[in-house]
Amino acid sequence: MQASWEIFCSVVDNYGDAGVTWRLARQLAAEHGLRVRLWIDDPAALVRLCPEADADASRRQAGVEICRWPADWQPVEPADVVIEAFACQLPEAHVAAMANCGRRVLWLNLEYLSAEDWVGGCHGLPSLQPGGLQKFFFFPGFAENTGGLLREHGLLERRRAFQADAAARAAFLQSLGVQARPGERLFSLFAYENAALPGWLDALAQHTSPTLLLVPEGRILGDLQRWLDMPALAVGAQAQRGALRIQVLPFVRQDDYDRLLWCCDFNAVRGEDSFLRAQWAGRPLLWQIYPQAEGAHWDKLEAFLALYLEGLSPSGADALQALWRAWNAGEEMGAAWTALQDEWPELCAHAERWCARQAARPDLAAALVQFYTDWL
User: Fold this and answer.
1) 167: buried, middle or exposed (CB in 10 Å: 19+, 13-18, 0-12)?
2) What are the residue ranges spanned by the domains of the chain?
3) What is the torsion angle, in degrees rounded to the nearest 10, for the CA atoms of residue 324, residue 325, residue 327 and residue 330?
4) What is the chain's pLDDT, residue by residue, as a tens digit (376 residues)?
5) Which protein family is named in the record (predicted)?
């Protein structure tokens, strides 16, 4: 019988935690034939990503048993592999059951994605826990000495086929109520609140090329509404200012969000899940990293830029770096965006090269399964 796996997810902010763990759970079940159970303390967040999931009761979707993580935890038999995602605290009773179940249980702390140098040195290290248990730290990452990146089998092939099929792209956009006009560049914007947004929108409105900005509903709508000076923005709302046309889209399931990124020429994304999916889209991107206390997020941002900018010309690297820094600092974007336009062809080619380079390494799910096999 295949090993059983369970993933614990505590939804901290928005949908990133739920998004990453749901993708991982689905892949472990679909590609590795594992029995997977996903514990989540806010099932409503998962329903936004997978509408078939039930926010009030346990049920199975895509081969994964989805369970509410209750405050009044009742003892259950632990799986062979227990993953606590992003350092969430397992129920004490479950840890005790892991120690007393009479068999070896692999306990993994799946950490947040980071390009920082220290990640490789900590990946796979054990930590002795009460009851004789060991917990291992598992770090996703962009380097050989990390656990790799979430990537389903055949993802890049499906993406490239979709991008090469104009009819498929048009049909998908139409399903969202989007009708692109001839000559329009398609951009997507999924972001937290950002003081830099007005400057970027001004630059897009004043540009010589027309742009359609597709904005899935989310926290950025308030800033967008103020820039447009509109009383409210709802799904389906459209507005035009200069060369910029804006349309608000519904919050879509994960697979459809991937297709949206594939349709666009440029993607502004946030957090971790959409950040990685924008990289797999093979298009230039702009990342808004989740702010942390005392500016700790800047180290993560600069560490990724140091890797991502490798292979770019000095002017291309300078332009992209200036744009990302201004966006994350909430500063004026106009000059940085103008400079970026001169580097556009190089940035497009570079995004595809980066994608292929990262896809040449084992993916996160495969690395986790291999780690378990080696541990046994």
Assistant:
1) exposed
2) 4-149+361-375, 155-359
3) 180
4) 689 999 999 987 667 788 999 999 999 999 999 999 999 988 888 887 877 777 665 678 888 999 999 888 988 999 999 999 998 999 999 999 999 998 999 999 999 999 999 999 999 999 988 888 999 999 999 999 999 999 999 999 999 999 999 999 999 999 999 999 999 999 999 999 999 999 999 999 999 999 999 999 999 999 999 999 998 889 999 999 999 999 999 999 999 999 999 999 999 999 899 999 999 999 999 999 988 888 889 999 999 999 999 999 999 999 999 999 999 999 999 999 999 999 999 999 999 999 999 999 999 999 999 999 999 8
5) Belongs to the glycosyltransferase 104 family.
Is the pTM of the predicted complex or chain greater than 0.90?
yes
Question: Counting runs of H as helices and runs of E as strands, what totals does the chain give?
Answer: 15, 14
Q: What one-character DSSP code corresponds to residue 293? A: G
Catalytic site positions: 17, 272
* Cα 282 to Cα 265: distance, rounded to the nearest angstrom: 9
Answer yes or no: CATH 3.40.50 is held by domain 4-149+361-375.
yes
d(CA 234, CA 231) in angstroms, rounded, equals 10
- Contact yes or no for 192/290 (Cβ under 8 A): yes
Q: Under a CB-based contact definition with an 8 Å cutoff, are residues 350 and 340 in contact?
A: no
Structure tokens at 157: 């092939």
Which class for 28: exposed (0-12), middle (13-18), buried (19 or more C-beta within 10 A)? buried
CB 328 within 8 A of CB 288: yes
Residue 252 in 3-state DSSP? coil
Do 4-149+361-375 and 155-359 fold alike per CATH? Answer: yes
The arrangement of secondary structure in 155-359, i.e. its CATH architecture, is: 3-Layer(aba) Sandwich (3.40)
Scanning 229-290, the segments in alpha helix (DSSP H) are 254-263, 273-280
